[in-house]
Amino acid sequence: MVDPLQTWTRSEHTADVGGKPTTHPVWRKGSGPGVVVVHEIPGITPSVAGFGQELVDAGYTVVMPSLFGTDGASMTAGSTARAMRQVCVSREFTKLRTGETTPVAGWLRSLARELHEELGGPGVGALGMCFTGGFALAMMVDDSVVAPVLCQPSAPFAVSPGRSRDLNLSAADLDVVRGRCAAGQQVLGVRYLKDPAVGKRFETLTTELGDAFIRIELEGRGHSTVTEHRSQRAVDAVLEFFGARLSA
């Protein structure tokens, strides 16, 4: 089997997570404005790498941090279960708590700042998916992130009505996001209409952000909008969003 990451360059990034220096691998490829792609469970699968390649082909410098899972491994029942166990014991992520920003958000903001400082321009894009979908919203607290994309945001796990509406953000961080949106920032959200994992988060986002929240809702029961259940409409919307906001 061909390694989906064989043409990507691996490095590492170290930043604070909950008061502790933390290092994660980062895969990079391309040239042009920067985009941080945060993988879904179970990790950087061939489909995630393939979406990253689509962004590279569209003219972006793409960095994909590896937060859990086995880089390059396919999505299987076994790889998903192993990643879930890793996520559930890690203090870097919130899983069920509401009204809190995931701890790894600070690490991701640091990565985005570093990329923006290197590449310049108006800022960088950030895209999260599934369990990490809301991470892009948390990254937007930093001014370096000017194009946040939330693909099927699914954390905290929607096991109750309150959790299904939660944005995985603290009240203070939500205030910053609201302020940036009031000043002209926009947020793109993409989901399948019948995906239960997203819960009522799109309704919360519309309530909190108003017209600044752009909703792309796809027919059907799919989940992974730009990877395993890839929708061309979703990919086109992401490319249009990045193109409008990342050009110098």
UniProtKB/TrEMBL annotation:
Pfam families: DLH
Record-linked SUPFAM superfamilies: alpha/beta-Hydrolases (SSF53474)
Domain of life where this protein originates: Bacteria
Region (Disordered): 1-25
Entry's Gene Ontology molecular function annotations: hydrolase activity
InterPro entries reported in the protein's UniProt record: AB_hydrolase_fold, Dienelactn_hydro
Keyword Transport: no
Keywords, sorted A to Z: Hydrolase
Start and end residues of each Dienelactone hydrolase domain: 31-145
Gene3D superfamilies: alpha/beta hydrolase
The name this protein goes by in its record: Dienelactone hydrolase
